[in-house]
Amino acid sequence: MRTVDTQAYLNTVCDMLSQGQHLVPVPVAGTSMCPFLHPGDTVYLDAPDRPPEVGDILLFCRPGGAYILHRVVALAEGGRLMLLGDSQLVKEPIPPEWIRGIVVQARRKGQLITPDHKIWRFYQRTWVRLTPLRRPILKVHKMLRSR
Minimal CB count within 10 Å: which of 13, 39, 73, 83? Predict the structure, then answer.
């Protein structure tokens, strides 16, 4: 098995996006986007071609170089975006210049889905609004998955 430096890989992904490549695949490694995305799923990125909207999933890079994949849950003052992983409870404000890519497709549990798919729309529209109820919902979800 080959190991890849995640930072170097994502730097290459960002270079590909800035050069106009589309549908650049990135495997999901963490759990912050569960229950929508799980480790082993794949997202396909494009460079943003419009301002981000609530519900979009963005790849962004923090100043220290950490790459994060989270969903826009609100638009804040001064053009900042409030991002939050689907399994998280604390929103993170980021400036638009941190954005590197936008998820336009995902291979979720082996199935290729796009923004017009019902599961995608549920997480994009409904899950975002359920942020105050996430703690109990995620607790039940975890219990059900462990059975």
Answer: 39
